[in-house]
Amino acid sequence: DYSEAVRAYRGATEADPGNVDGWAGLGNAYLGLGNLDAAEAAFKRARAIDPENSTLKKGMELLNNARKGSG
């Protein structure tokens, strides 16, 4: 359930703001809920920590595809 995932990843990023996987996971959870703006914000936080993170890169690809599909 994406709502549960959002809660879990928010907890992880609050406990450790440098947790790139937490931010990328939060972005993916928001994507699952269709909240593209929140997903983008989380991915931006992840990118600031580690722009080469594979979870981040895949999430950004999915976000870009979702934005194209909704435009």
Descriptive notes:
The protein is 83% helix and 0% strand. With 71 residues, it is mainly α. Helix 2 runs antiparallel to helix 3 and helix 2 packs parallel to helix 4.
Summarize the model shown:
With 71 residues, the protein is mostly helical.
List keywords for this structure.
4 helices; 71 residues; globular; single chain; 0% strand; mainly alpha
| Strand fraction | under 5%
What value does the average pLDDT take? 96
Number of strands: 0
Low-confidence stretches: none
Helix proportion: over 70%
- Gyration radius over CA: 11 Å
Topology:
Blueprint: H1 2-15, H2 20-33, H3 36-49, H4 54-70
Helix pairs in contact: 1-2, 2-3, 2-4, 3-4
